Amino acid sequence: MSKEKLKKAREFEQEQLKRISPEERPCYHVTGGSGWINDPNGFSFYKDEYHLFYQYHPYSNEWGPMHWGHVTSKDLITWERLPLAMVPEESYDNFGCFSGSGIELPDGRHLLMYTGVGYVSDIPMANGELPTHQTQCLAVGDGTDYEKYEKNPVITGEDVPAGGSKVDFRDPKIWKDEDGFYYAVVANMTDDGNSRILLFKSTDAFQWQYVCVLDHSDEKLGKMWECPDFYEVDGKHVLVVSPMAMMPEGLKFHVGHSVIYLTGTYDKKTHQFIREDVQPLDSGIDFYAPQSMQTPDGRRVMIAWMQAWPNSKFVPDGVKYFGQMTLPREINYRNGKLIQQPVREIENYRGEYVHYENVEISDETVLNGVDGRVLDMTVKLKVTDAFKKFTIKLAADETYDSTITYDPVREVLSLDRSRSGYMYDILHTRDIQVKPAGGEVTLRILMDRFSVEIFINDGSQTATMVLFTPQEADNISFAADGKAQISVDKYALTF
Ligand code: DQQ
């Protein structure tokens, strides 16, 4: 395999890095070296560090032939940039190295499993594009340099059971189970335009056999299910998928690209997954293709692409790179739901602290010391009939603001970032059904320079959105239509 393309891409990235100052990047959210990023890939612990790869097109702020970018971290909060790991170059991946996952092999090497998308003919199809197909491939490395496996691809369309597409067959997520076998879940479009998740099994992670269909979209839960993830947490089995083209259902599921989790029972002998429930994973605007891993201390930690696909063609002027990841989140299962919390390591970056107890809010109110753009703030709102609406304005000045509003009658939390400086007529609002817990709605709000992540009622729901607001807009205020009572704990985050 020629290393020329990889060398060129790495040199290009190095050169581009100089154009982007640290102030133009978030403080603690992963971004690409230059150009465009999407899905997190290969999230794993290897040689005493967390490794995160990502779908990457270094050459422009638009999606293009997919490379794999690479960062590492000791604590999941601050990240070091490594040279990009893979370029599309082989016959089986010359259209792109699509999403996949990573795991350490018993011999100490790091294995990446990904979807190679390769051209299969030079005769254009009716839509003018050249036909491609998708196969599952491997690359093995030492944490910095990766070699594609000489026997790639390791799972092909021939392994897809009847009824499924050889073109839409992607995003392998690998794990090693207690029985000593490797397993991988792979997304597959079915001939009727729906989707299913295929389970494969291997003794050595190099030779794979098809096992069964784990679950399918059933014409109800969207079309192609992308980026599956399957794990057990707190005794419950969870299948996470990112459906394209979901039908909305009240305020529970929004239309289009979504992320849902299916909980159920899994028989490790027969590999039968019996779904019991389905819920949205994040109800905000910018969240897709999450991937999780188990940390050495046993936590299930998930990270996602912090961007909405339909908005991704609208890159604000002057932006030098496009796309970020969410803060990694700890996942637990409680009372029938996945609970998400910011990874606890973020608390090591807490600085200046202010606290307000039972403050009465009516007209727009600024609380001394409650401001900034990089912070960890918890607002507890007592839900009573003394107010009709309660609003928090973030990243605000005379021109800009982004709001979170709670309506206690409808029990709806609304996001609105239409005044955030993102100057396109795209998706900027979202309504989320939020029931009070113990008479309160608790919002833990993690802000970084270009984002807001909201953990609602101890993380039983979350809502994420990206901001392009100038950093000078750093006021925070509270207002109620009526009288609301809140308590606030706010930490500045310092890096
Ligand atoms: N993005 C990747 C695919 C995946 C999709 C391509 C989801 O592997 O299905 O960049 O965002």
From TrEMBL:
**Which Gene3D superfamilies does the record associate with it?**
Exo-inulinase, domain 1, Glycosyl hydrolase domain, family 43
GO molecular function terms listed in the Swiss-Prot or TrEMBL record? beta-fructofuranosidase activity
Q: What is its EC number?
A: 3.2.1.26
Keywords noted in UniProt: Glycosidase, Hydrolase
Question: One GO biological process from the UniProt record?
Answer: carbohydrate metabolic process
Q: Where is the Glycosyl hydrolase family 32 C-terminal domain?
A: 345-486
Family as reported in the entry's similarity comment: Belongs to the glycosyl hydrolase 32 family.
UniProt superkingdom = Bacteria
Protein name per UniProt? beta-fructofuranosidase
Instruction: Tell me if Hydrolase is a UniProt keyword of this record.
Output: yes
CDD domains cross-referenced by the UniProt entry: GH32_FFase
Question: Gene for this protein?
Answer: sacA
Domain named Glycosyl hydrolase family 32 N-terminal: residues: 29-342
